[in-house]
User: What shape does this take?
Amino acid sequence: MLDESPKVEIQHAENTGGAKRKTKNGKTTNEQSLKNETATPILPTSPQTKYSGLSIDEIKVLENKTKTEVEDLNKRVFDNDSDAQTLIENMHSKLSKVQGRINSNEDTLHANLKREAALDDEINGLLQKISALKASKEKLAVENEQLKQDVRYLTEERRNLEEVFDKEIKGRKESKESYLKSISTLTENLRLMKIEIDAKLNIQGNDEMPKEATNSQRHESAGDSGPQNSAPSNNNMLLEFLSSQISAKEADLECPVCMEVSQVPIYTCQEQHIICSQCWDKVKIRSAGGEAECVICRSPYPQPPRHHRYMEKVAHELQQLYHMLKGIKQQSSSSS
Assistant: This one.
C-alpha cells in the first residue's frame, strides 16, 4: 500500500496556496508576502506547483519516499507481469490440451454421427427386408394351407382309386385264373384226344384185310390227319401266347437301374417309376444319408419306401405264367 500522507500534504498545499507558516511578528507568510509586494516590486518566478510551498528538504524527503514507492510499484508490476506470463503459459498449455480433447471428441462425435446415420439406414433396410420376409411367410402359410387341403383331398382320391383299382385287378385276376384253368383243361383234353385217336388207329389197322386195309387205312389216315395234327398246332399257339405275355410283363418289370426283371418287393417313386429292392438299397447307400432320388425323374423316394402294389401283382402273375409255360413244355415233350 502507498503512504497517503504525501497526498494529504499536497492536497492541503493546493487548497491553501502553499503551506502557511508564521513569522517572528506572528503573521503568516501570506500576509508577509502581501506586504512585501506593496513594499517591493514583483520579480518573475517559476510556475507554481503543488510543491511550491514546501522546502527543499521536505521535497527531497517526499521525493525519496515517492521513488521508493515507485520502485516498489515497478517491482510489483514486474512480479505481476511475470505471474501473468506464467499464468498465460500455463493456461495456454491447459487450453491447448482442452482444445485438443475438444477437437478429438468433435471428430469422434462426427464419426459416430455418420456411423449412427449409416446404422439407421441399415436398420431401415433390414426392417424393410423383415417386412418383405413376413409378407412372404404369410403368403407361404396361406399357400401351405391350400396345399395341405389339396393333399388331403388327393390322398382321399388316391385311396378311392386304389380301392377301385384293387377291385378291378381282383376281378381281372379271377378272370385270368379262370381262363388259364380253362386253357389247362382244354390242353389236357387235347392230350387225351390224341392218345385216344392213336389207340383207335392201331386197333383199326389190326382188324382189316392186308391190301384193302392198307388202302383204306391210307384214306382214313389222310382223312384223320387233321385232328392228329391239330393238337400240336394248338400247343404251339398256346406257347406263343404265353411267351408273348411273359415278354410284355418282363418289360414292365424291368428295373431302370440293373435292367433286370424286378422281384417282390418292388418300390416306386412319386411318379410311379419302379425300382427293385436290391437297387433301392444301393441308391440309398450312394445318397450318403440324403434323399435317394429316382434315376428317371430325379424325384425323391418316399421314406419309408413305398411298395408298387400293381407291379408286385404283375410279378406274381409272371411267376404263374412261368409255371404254366413249363408245364405245357413238359406235356409237349412227353406226348412227342
In short: The first strand starts at residue 266 and ends at 268. The helical segments are 5-16, 29-39, 56-207, 210-252, 277-286, 309-335. The beta strands are 266-268, 274-276, 306-307. The chain has a mean pLDDT of 77.
